[in-house]
Design goal:
Helix content: 25-40%
Number of domains: 1
Number of helices: 5
Oligomer: single chain
Structural class: alpha+beta
Shape: globular
Radius of gyration: 16 Å
């Protein structure tokens, strides 16, 4: 009973910490205009730093971009990102948030962005049909690191979804997308 109470207190503390972090240097977007502006800026930074992302974008059926995710944890962790946009042929067709909780050996606070490149209609349909897509369930995802990015071309890209993590700030042991739940939102 005492352990459960400590875990609840720790989780609440982490959520407060995430809230403090998001109201500081990393502001979460609220309106569709703000989200679109932040997504444009994030894609520009991603394409400038990772040419393979621009190459995949030309073939992708859709790109879901989260410009700002904040993750905090100490044994129990939480991450949150509001203000993702799904782009199809360069046009925003939906808005999303991303939430995750985790436990295990982890510590720190970090902000980052990520983009998911949906390479086929089946992957896009899965996102559109789900009432909240949990990464790790459904289409296969490949997280693209610097090594994979160097060898990735439009002919070698055979997976359903490619994820690029970018603009990392802070220090967090155990960064990942597994278990993140993506849900559609309707901003003002």
């Amino acid at each position: 009973m005492l352990i459960n109470k400590r875990l609840y207190i720790l989780l609440i503390s982490l959520l407060v910490l995430v809230g403090c972090q998001s109201s500081g240097g990393t502001r979460m977007a609220n309106s569709s205009a703000e989200i679109n502006r932040d997504v444009d800026h994030a894609l520009h930074k991603l394409y400038a730093s990772t040419p393979a992302a621009r190459t995949l974008a030309a073939r992708a059926k859709g790109i879901l971009v989260f410009p700002s995710i904040v993750k905090a944890g100490f044994m129990v962790g939480a991450q949150y990102g509001r203000g993702g946009a799904l782009r199809v042929k360069g046009r925003t067709v939906g808005y999303y948030n991303s939430v995750a909780a985790s436990y295990g050996l982890q510590a720190g606070v970090q902000s980052f962005g990520y983009a998911l490149f949906f390479m086929n209609n089946a992957a896009m349909n899965y996102l559109n049909r789900s009432e909240g897509w949990e990464i790790g369930v459904g289409p296969s995802i490949v997280v693209v690191d610097a090594g994979v990015a160097r060898s990735l071309t439009t002919t070698t890209a055979k997976d359903n979804v490619y994820a690029f993590i970018f603009d990392q700030k802070g220090l967090m042991a155990g960064l990942g997308l597994q278990g993140s739940k993506i849900t559609r939102i309707y901003p003002d």
